[in-house]
Amino acid sequence: IDGLALIPNDIKLLVSKANVEFHLKDYDKSLVTLDRLQSINPDAFGVYLSKSKIYVAKGNLTSAINQQEMAVKAKPDILPFKLVLIQLYLKNNNINLAKRLLKSLPEQAQKTIAVIELEGRTAYVEQDYKQAAIILNRVYQEKPSEQVLYELVTALQRINLSDKALKLLEEIEEPNKVLPLRLAFKQAELYSKAQPEKAIDIYLQLAKNTNNHYVVLNNLASLYLQQGNNTEALKAASEAIKLAPDEIAVQDTYALTLLATGDKKQAMALLANVYQAQKGSLNYKVHYAQALLANNMKGEAKKLLLAIDESKLDAQTRGKLQEMKETL
User: Fold this and answer.
1) Contact status, residue 226 vs residue 203, Cβ threshold 8 Å
2) b/e map of 185-222 (b: 16 or more CB within 10 Å)?
3) Alpha carbon distances (Å) from 188 to 108, 181, 182, 228
């Protein structure tokens, strides 16, 4: 890179400089270097690809898509450029653009497993989980990957085939082998209703592997509450709230553990804050009504509960709502 002082317009050195800056996560400097490279060689379509990758790393999907579209425009016959663009469209929830580009691909390309995978991912993003499960299962048999497996098991979960989802995850487990993090989270989530003890075991292991991440602790607290183990629930929730005091979901779980262990006033104060912060959440509304009822504020609780559409609640919260209505 020092050679740029002697040969400031050397394309190879500029490319190396931009790559080093990217790997050092100095993204803005890398973009400046790529701009310089592009001013010297306007036809260097690889600059679009590099910029797109940088914008993805920066979390700017709109700019990433813009750069990838320019790469496709510069080299319309290069299939991988189009496949990356489709992936970016899907990440940005531009489903119609993704479908349009998929449909425009040559017939021969549409038979490839890479394109079929994108068709399955499109169905997944579109929440057509039945179709997604069919397509992604075919892809997983031929080209297994963590991403495909995660989307496949989630699609199966959404169409009430959690047993099949769990079986897929169990098949890839080996003795003393830990599943990748998000697959382990998904496995615990799948176990939570039918086999909460197994879910707790997974979360306990995840707590060790993630240095007691607050999300793990929060999920543990929720499961302990579900089982009526209020002491362990409070212990896990207390640790979670120390680590993430501003997280609404953590505040909610912590308040519910306080309610379960008899600290009704503090629980009500916290749940009031949670409800005010997320008034669109029906689950939080039920939790707040639960605290009001526990503090003998039946009129306010009833007013909240009567305005709730039960069909939009998860099963556990719906059960609590029905119990409270019977009490009132």
Assistant:
1) no
2) bbbbbbbbeeebeebbebbeebbeebebbbbbbbbbbb
3) 40, 11, 10, 18
Alpha carbon of 112 to those of 99, 105, 107, 108, 138: distances in Å? Answer: 16, 11, 9, 7, 12
Range scoring the smallest mean pLDDT among 56-60, 228-232, 321-325: 321-325
- At 281-308, the pLDDT tens digits run 888 998 999 999 999 998 888 888 887 8
Q: Which backbone phi and psi does 232 adopt, to 5 degrees?
A: -70, -35
Residues 6 or more apart whose CB falls under 8 angstroms from that of 227 comprise 196, 200
Amino acid at 74: A
Question: How far is residue 22's CA from residue 16's CA, in Å, rounded to a whole number?
Answer: 10
pLDDT tens-place string over residues 113-144: 999 999 999 999 999 999 999 999 999 999 99
Q: Can you say how many angstroms the Cα of residue 241 is from the centroid of all Cα atoms in its chain?
A: 21
Exposure string for 158-170, b = 16+ CB within 10 A, e = fewer: beebbeebbebbe
Taking only the tens place, the pLDDT of each residue in 63-77 is: 999 999 999 999 999
Helices first, then strands: H and E counts in the chain: 20, 0
Q: Which two tokens stand for residue 288?
A: 């707040």
The label of the residue with tokens 């929830």 reads: 93
The span from the CA of 206 to the CA of 168, in Å, is 20
**pLDDT tens-digit profile of 223-261?**
999 999 999 999 999 999 999 999 999 999 999 999 999
Residue carrying structure tokens 């048999």: 141
pTM: 0.84
